């Protein structure tokens, strides 16, 4: 290990991030064994071990009182330590520096959702860490996988030379949820008819399909968890917006000229272990082929004919290995997942499937795209005048929020207030988790700048609203919420 | 070519059309010929001084004859007036004699000159005249003046006529002229007025330059299908059957059908064209609804059904009949009758819908065909249901099923649009409903006859008057409901197809197969703006639940593809899915609220332990039907004294007199007994 560039070292003092396995390295002198990942990688081992040692100590200690859910967070004077037990005894810990002057005001749950996302995406592409470790007790391969994967992931947060993690400005966003396109009944029926056609293209293979319009989900036949993972992958690597911006995410223009974090390390990694490391999160590797299918050489290229190998991933619940096959028509992205086991002739079967799709479904695809495009209100479609909101349906892992461009018009005070309110709700929720009941919750505060900041939670749904130009009275604020609830949430938050 | 084997009368034999034994026997002593009066649907057999007639509509073999007396003399043709008050008999080439039935008075109408031959005559319900004489010099239109007991000439159309054909069904008279008799004039005399068709020529191939064939009357047929009027013309040289369609202002050739016999006869049964290839003794069926020239089925012979068994040697007549199929004595009467002049047997031709539907594997096409059938609407409908059901159970490929479903839905939507679909109308018991027969047919095409190309539907509509007659004739259909159309409303599609298929399909993959079909049905219904029965949505929910596709179920409910209804809400709450999935249950709860089913919603909230929310909701929506004890029990069970107190307080304030009820005292005591009640 110990591979990193000076540039990153300077940029990342504010962030430390490690993954370790409590089942490894339990004997003196073998402590390094337990480290699976550490960022920054060039931190001297004693320093790495001291971070991990502190974390491990706290976990062991808190487990005495709460064996199921041990330590979640340490709030030190200058740092916050965020814990996440990704798999039994495999912990992810993120240490972030606090600072009032800079924008470094974090919501712990937001940071934890980053850890969760890293882990679930990793599992989707590489399988669980434990299984990898069991396969190869030395851990070298697992470390290389984790390193390249996480570095590719963190790349998305790199702005200039600094990591910008989700802070209070992202309070009206919910990582790890899906954003849906709202469609009318008729369009919805057409979409489902297309889903049926896709299904029949896949024959009896019991595959799955996911359809996106722009960066919004239209339909899925996957379980909510798998949908969420695939959705976050698709919206960061596959959708037309991403592809047209040169294959990288929205911040690419900021990053131009920056060396990619993991490229060198990956090369060295593969050289070291003699294994090919697949880097699904690598930027700029997907492109749209002439036939409309998206291609990438991330998974390698077939020897001889230069045909890229079809990507594969794992489903979380069933642990089936699936081929990923993506097709794009204008704003519509269609992702098919086909069980590897059902494709006896591998790549050949995939190209037959592609043929099937072009022959039998393309008319429907065009029709659906036209219908959705006609009904779409543009990127500000879900803006509600006067409101800045976030609506989360926890049961179905769906969220909808004011468009980012509108959220930026809020003042810092409002954002800090909503950040605080969300922390309170998070806390309330984690307390309630024990007895597994969904308590109704209502918080309504007046921020320093006279904005109303409101949170409501009922039966698995949460609503956060900031009203900056609102009237003085609480009555006014609560009526505004009522109106919003009736219009946009089927009255789910109308309490009386 | 013995057809005795078919005497069992089963439909197992290969044929698509049949006649049913026994026939209507039109025999009387001293008959001097058989005449068909198509205006009144009467078969007339005059003797020297009597007129014996049989009603052929509704067709029953047992029908009794009626006899009228006329004076002696030759009978060239004979027709009753449309009100049946007069009998007109053509006595010679220039005289037609009339009887007034009521009084027995007679009068005659003669043509003016000897050379002006009367070719024939017909009664009409046209507004300006009552009877039309067709003469070699043209048409004479007369109206009958009852007071004077004579005819008054209204109008004459001067045109040379070699021969003519007329059907009352079409109200159309075609007048042939010219050397080859292939130049035609036409008039339609309907109640809407008299329409003169442009003169047109029929196509005739020549065998060689000098030999010009002459068109004869039996080679030209006027055919009415789907309310459109066609003319079919046999070209014996080219062995083709040319078709022409008549529009109000034009005659347009429509293409040709091949023929395999020098003699061709044409019948129309339930708007299906039956081309009898007389020499080959086979029938080819065409359904020319969509201008398709493809036959409905392969050529197959006509079948006699219901011949008594064991009569092959003993019963002479039966043997004769079967041997005499397509004999020279067979006369084809418009639209679907055959009369054997030698024996006096009158047969009605029926379609064997079962055989037709069984003979084609193209189910969507068969369904289209069946949906257009009106005569045996009930049978056609049942066949449609059975066909759809069976292809689903056979698990035919989805695209085929989709097309079949679309056919049925489109057809139903069309019938709704044209208003021809009405819920089955109850009919007093089926014992020979005394329908006014003569009132039926005139109404049929009286609306102008010639349709513009897009006005056919009106006719289909009118045809339904005739359906009651058909059903009352089929005595075996002793139902109290009369099906007037083969179209299938969504709820019946559910009951007889989807629900019944669901019972038989229980496998995991079957559920998704069936669900795809349901979805296509919903799609199709949505395109046609037909309301779908809630049961279908309930079934959809159940199928998704069975496959544990809960996330998708959520999408379907939220997108309202599955339309909200109480039935669906209850299925979400209590069906297969809800046992395993809380989210599904929540969808049901939300749906109840959206539907404003306040009572059910409040009860559910209480059941789920959300009694405080339920109270708030009950107050807001003024739900007073839920018993207070439900809330109190729930609050008591939660073991939270504050909550119980709150609930008690609520009812104390909102229900007058609650404080005096036994419930109140019971729970006040319970509250006092609760451990931590006042400790804080």
UniProtKB/TrEMBL annotation, chain A:
<dbReference type="InterPro" id="IPR013176">
    <property type="entry name" value="Ccz1"/>
</dbReference>
<comment type="similarity">
    <text>Belongs to the CCZ1 family.</text>
</comment>
<protein>
    <recommendedName>
        <fullName>CCZ1/INTU/HSP4 first Longin domain-containing protein</fullName>
    </recommendedName>
</protein>
<dbReference type="GO" id="GO:0035658">
    <property type="term" value="C:Mon1-Ccz1 complex"/>
</dbReference>
<dbReference type="InterPro" id="IPR043987">
    <property type="entry name" value="CCZ1/INTU/HSP4_longin_1"/>
</dbReference>
<dbReference type="GO" id="GO:0016192">
    <property type="term" value="P:vesicle-mediated transport"/>
</dbReference>
<feature type="domain" description="CCZ1/INTU/HSP4 first Longin">
    <location>
        <begin position="17"/>
        <end position="127"/>
    </location>
</feature>
<dbReference type="Pfam" id="PF19031">
    <property type="entry name" value="Intu_longin_1"/>
</dbReference>
UniProtKB/TrEMBL annotation, chain B:
<feature type="compositionally biased region" description="Polar residues">
    <location>
        <begin position="420"/>
        <end position="440"/>
    </location>
</feature>
<feature type="domain" description="Regulator of MON1-CCZ1 complex N-terminal">
    <location>
        <begin position="34"/>
        <end position="151"/>
    </location>
</feature>
<feature type="region of interest" description="Disordered">
    <location>
        <begin position="420"/>
        <end position="459"/>
    </location>
</feature>
<dbReference type="InterPro" id="IPR049040">
    <property type="entry name" value="RMC1_N"/>
</dbReference>
<feature type="domain" description="Mic1">
    <location>
        <begin position="463"/>
        <end position="653"/>
    </location>
</feature>
<dbReference type="GO" id="GO:0035658">
    <property type="term" value="C:Mon1-Ccz1 complex"/>
</dbReference>
<dbReference type="GO" id="GO:0031902">
    <property type="term" value="C:late endosome membrane"/>
</dbReference>
<dbReference type="GO" id="GO:0010506">
    <property type="term" value="P:regulation of autophagy"/>
</dbReference>
<dbReference type="InterPro" id="IPR009755">
    <property type="entry name" value="RMC1_C"/>
</dbReference>
<dbReference type="InterPro" id="IPR036322">
    <property type="entry name" value="WD40_repeat_dom_sf"/>
</dbReference>
<dbReference type="Pfam" id="PF21029">
    <property type="entry name" value="RMC1_N"/>
</dbReference>
<dbReference type="Pfam" id="PF07035">
    <property type="entry name" value="RMC1_C"/>
</dbReference>
<dbReference type="InterPro" id="IPR040371">
    <property type="entry name" value="RMC1"/>
</dbReference>
<protein>
    <recommendedName>
        <fullName>Mic1 domain-containing protein</fullName>
    </recommendedName>
</protein>
